[in-house]
Amino acid sequence: MYIYLMNLSNTYGQLEDYLAKLQASGRYWFTLSEAEKELNTSSKSIHKQLVPLARKKKMVMIRKEFYAIIAPEFRINGAPPVTYYIDGLMKTLNRSYYISLLNAAAWYGAAHQQPQKYSIVVHRPYLPPIKKDYARVDFIYKSQWDNKDIVQQKTNAGYVNTSSSELTALDLCYYSKRAGGINHVATVLQELAEEINPQTLEEVAGRFSSLMAVQRLGYLLEFLGHPEKAHPLKEWLNNQKHHAALLDPGANDSSSKVTGNDWKIIVNTEIDPDL
Fold this sequence. Notes:
- The chain is of the alpha+beta class.
- The protein folds into two domains: 2-73, Orthogonal Bundle (Arc Repressor Mutant, subunit A); 84-266, Beta Polymerase, domain 2.
- The chain has helices spanning 2-11, 14-24, 32-39, 43-55, 86-92, 101-107, 165-174, 182-192, 198-207, 211-223, 227-237; strands at 29-31, 59-63, 66-69, 97-99, 118-122, 130-132, 135-141, 150-155, 158-163, 245-246, 265-266.
- The strands form four sheets. Strands 4-5-7-6 form a four-stranded mixed beta sheet.
- It is elongated and about 70 Å long.
- Residues 1-10 have low confidence and may be disordered.
């Protein structure tokens, strides 16, 4: 017993020093197993040191055995921004990912307000969402995507994977309900359009899983006054076999199947961008 207490005394405070070194190197996360290995101590010893650090708001648990380091400027929020540790979390879980929807649009200056939760696209299997006061992360599942359409964005804590402006626009039109509805999508697209390269958009559409999303995006770009962004997309779509699609997949189906536009979009809702 005496030897055990002596060991605890020797290791107490080591974790705090370890976290300070990580933070000084620009890293704001750590795992339980890493700390055990680095400090050459047991998980029980680490857990004993975590309690006072959590009380002083110097670290916080994001998932089991994965923790975020809290710099002084973030202690009032209870945790650093998700971008400070999401790349580390995904690498720890050995999962490919990218930041999507409104969070991705914000990187291109196309979000009017910071979203309350992060939308992260991943492959299956299932990952439970993170629902904490200091962190809200929803995981969206895709069977595949092309790394050509992923951009590494620099943060104060390294890099994160984010969808390109073109992939972001298509994702917004596919997952419109997750992005606040088709009207909010139109509002975001009005500014995001400035960052879209028409030729690149055509290429990304060819790799995208949903033609309906392509149709919605093309229609909205023209409706919002950006026909030059949509022109190559229209020419590409004319060579694809596609059918009529609802503008708002979340609204009630329209009794009419008449589209009256080149995109074969059934306008089942009124678009009124909040600009």
